[in-house]
Design goal:
Blueprint: H1 9-16, H2 22-34, H3 36-53, H4 64-74, H5 95-108, E1 158-164, E2 171-177, E3 183-189, E4 193-198, E5 204-210, E6 216-223, E7 229-236, E8 245-246, E9 252-258, E10 278-284, E11 289-292, E12 299-304, E13 312-317, E14 323-328, E15 337-340, E16 343-347, E17 354-364, E18 367-378, E19 394-395, E20 412-415, E21 421-425, E22 446-450, E23 472-478, E24 484-491, E25 501-508, E26 515-517, E27 526-532
Antiparallel strand pairs: 1-2, 1-27, 2-3, 4-5, 5-6, 6-7, 8-9, 9-10, 10-11, 12-13, 13-14, 14-15, 16-17, 17-18, 18-19, 20-21, 21-22, 23-24, 24-25, 25-26
């Protein structure tokens, strides 16, 4: 049942009126997972119905057709919709979006037709709208209140992603406020969430989901004010590609994509890179558009520097001897600092230090990892150390010795909110164990410590949870007050096509009890990763 090639407009229309059978609903959900165009069409229809449901009916102005023709002929509508680089239409929305726009013009009667983003000389631009010829007289317009977000996290409140579904069906993704129980629908996905990051202003949630059984990930941004989801790209599932970096003012999101070809029906946004190449991408929030920042094929987004002036992104370049560059977005690109031997630095919340990788790297296809002496380091305090010595780091683990080049092939680390707490997990140690019991360091453990004390060691092991050895740590983040960590613990799937399963464990760092969000797979469900309100 289609009306546009292999799209499902009729199913989308029927879903809005509740006329779908169970089989048709399953067909629609499965199609939406892989078709960006139909997801945009559904969003357009939904927005249209929301607008129309709350508006009074008014006759169109008698001169409306003439005004539209005059606007087209004079060019005052700006670029034709098929040439615009951003917005819903550029994302592939159907003609339903155009229809919604025309309906809105008919209802409101007298609107200015200047291009979006340009100031109008008409009285409508001053904040009050002159009534059209057929409008009913009303009281003077008052200032509109600030829109209330559809979903918000209060300071310190826990929010987490939840994926639910039945075997062989599309998975439903929601973002839930643990304190209030409020949730926002993020549509359907084909795999579990593995990373999440809240923008500094609390308006956007960036997250990464696995793309079914393809060996790929998808990067998304969810606007918490109106529930809009923005697909940002697909990437090979590889080490060091799960970093989601927000600029301090929330204007940019930086992330990494390794080009993977999943076919024309995958729903992945365009990526003109070569297969297997890694490059940094940026989502420009204000302009609602994404762009490829690098074309080197070995670049990874790390984190933003703090401070005034243009947002400065630390870009890391994988190589036998990796390095990092500080690149100002919107600033002078000719004055770029190169930091040798530093890979994927994560700047502390106060901007005074960074955790980073050091060692020799090797590529396996498009995926890079450390092959010799890969150890996370902590930089010196940027305020007291000069530029030449700030990046002379101290090993994050005080009791690990890279004998013969042993080290971690990969791993993940996180700062606490006080810029003192640190966590490390998923460390793939490529040498012999360095403990008498033969289990340290372990990829199945999380280590938590403080920079001001003794950094990390075997004694920094976070208490194990009651989980099978086959479980793994997906993501770890600190509570806003540093009293606990929220850890997503994944469980193996029962088989191909079965829904993913994970618990969100709230583990106290102060001797309190552990709290579990989720069911551990019976029934199936995936809860996490989590973020905390700022």
């Amino acid at each position: 049942m289609t009306s546009r090639g292999n799209h499902v407009d009729q199913l989308i229309s029927a879903s809005l009126s509740g006329d779908l059978t169970d089989a048709e609903r399953a067909e629609l959900d499965a199609h939406l997972v892989r078709c960006e165009s139909c997801r945009a069409t559904l969003a357009a229809f939904t927005a249209e119905r929301r607008i129309l449901s709350g508006l009074p009916v008014a006759d169109p102005p008698p001169d409306l057709p003439a005004r539209i023709r005059a606007g087209i002929e004079s060019g005052r509508f700006g670029k034709p919709w098929w040439r615009r680089s951003s917005g819903v239409l550029a994302l592939g929305a159907s003609l339903a979006t155009v229809a919604a726009a025309v309906l809105a013009v008919v209802i409101f009667g007298n609107l200015d037709f200047s291009p979006v983003g340009q100031q109008s000389n008409s009285p409508a631009a001053s904040g009050s709208v002159a009534p059209g010829p057929s409008a009913v007289e009303t009281s003077p317009a008052t200032e509109r209140p600030t829109p209330v977000p559809a979903f918000a996290l209060g300071p310190g409140e826990l929010g987490y992603l939840s994926v639910t579904g039945a075997p062989l069906e599309a998975l439903k993704l929601s973002f839930i406020n643990d304190a209030t129980g409020a949730s926002i629908d993020a549509g359907t996905v084909s795999g579990p969430a593995i990373a999440a990051s809240l923008s500094p202003d609390g308006q956007w949630l960036a997250y990464i989901t696995q793309k079914g059984e393809t060996g790929a990930n998808e990067v998304w941004a969810l606007h918490l004010t109106d529930g809009k989801t923005v697909p940002l790209g697909c990437s090979e599932d590889a080490s060091f590609t799960d970093r989601l970096a927000w600029a301090p003012d929330g204007t940019y999101l930086a992330y990494t994509l390794i080009k993977i070809d999943l076919g024309s029906g995958s729903g992945c946004p365009a990526n003109d890179g070569a297969l297997g190449t890694a490059d940094a991408w940026v989502f420009d929030v204000a302009n609602d558009e994404r762009f490829r920042l690098t074309r080197s094929g070995n670049a990874y987004s790390s984190s933003f520097m703090s401070g005034s002036g243009p947002a400065t992104l630390l870009l890391s370049f994988a190589a036998e001897s990796p390095w990092t560059e500080a690149v100002p977005l919107g600033g002078d690109p000719t004055n770029i600092d190169r930091i040798e031997g530093v890979f994927l630095p994560l700047v502390s919340p106060d901007g005074n230090r960074a955790i980073f990788w050091n060692g020799r790297m090797t590529a396996n296809g498009g995926s890079w990892h450390f092959s010799l002496g890969g150890l996370p380091q902590v930089s010196r305090d940027f305020r007291s150390a000069g530029p030449a010595s700030a990046w002379v780091g101290t090993a994050l683990f005080t009791d690990l010795v890279a004998v013969g080049g042993e080290g971690f092939a990969s791993g993940a680390f996180r700062w606490g909110p006080d810029s003192d707490l640190i966590a490390f997990w998923d460390g793939a140690w490529n040498g012999a164990p360095q403990s008498a019991d033969g289990i340290y360091p372990s990829q199945q453990d999380v280590y938590v410590g403080r920079v001001s004390e003794s950094l990390l060691s075997q004694a920094s092991l976070l208490d194990r949870i009651d989980a099978p050895e086959t479980a793994w740590w997906v993501d770890v983040t600190f509570a806003s007050d540093g009293s606990a960590v929220a850890a997503t613990v994944g469980y193996p799937s029962a088989g191909i096509g079965d829904p993913p399963s994970a618990n969100l464990e709230i583990l106290s760092l102060e001797g309190g009890t552990t709290r579990t969000i989720g069911s551990g797979g019976d029934p199936a469900g995936w809860d996490g990763p989590a973020v905390f309100g700022r």
